[in-house]
């Protein structure tokens, strides 16, 4: 039986600039971020897989009321990764007031940055980010 991805390994990979997901041995679907079971079929036979980080922006919103540690306004976006999963992260490098529908369909690269908040349970918590390619 294949082994999944542990949270500490996922966070360590993010800190190193790598995107650690998991591929299901039963159906082949890629799940990101890693979960206890495959997001497509629910089986727990998942092996670690490194993702390319390439994706296409599918939707976004501008956040003007921010949680602790975030400075509004900023853009929260969703992208469909080349390997299949849809991921939510902050779009960096674009001013929130400049965000418009021309962002939809743009190619993005997924990365991460340290979370600024001290409220999270995990000290090394990271925020997923996108940059336009
Ligand atoms: Zn599956």
Automatic annotation (TrEMBL):
Boundaries of every ChsH2 rubredoxin-like zinc ribbon domain copy: 12-44
Q: Which residue numbers delimit the ChsH2 C-terminal OB-fold domain?
A: 49-110
InterPro entries recorded:
ChsH2_C (IPR002878), ChsH2_Znr (IPR022002), NA-bd_OB-fold (IPR012340), Thioester_dehydratase-like (IPR052513)
| Name used for this protein in its record | DUF35 domain-containing protein
UniProt organism field = Desulfarculus baarsii (strain ATCC 33931 / DSM 2075 / LMG 7858 / VKM B-1802 / 2st14)
Lineage, please?
Bacteria, Pseudomonadati, Thermodesulfobacteriota, Desulfarculia, Desulfarculales
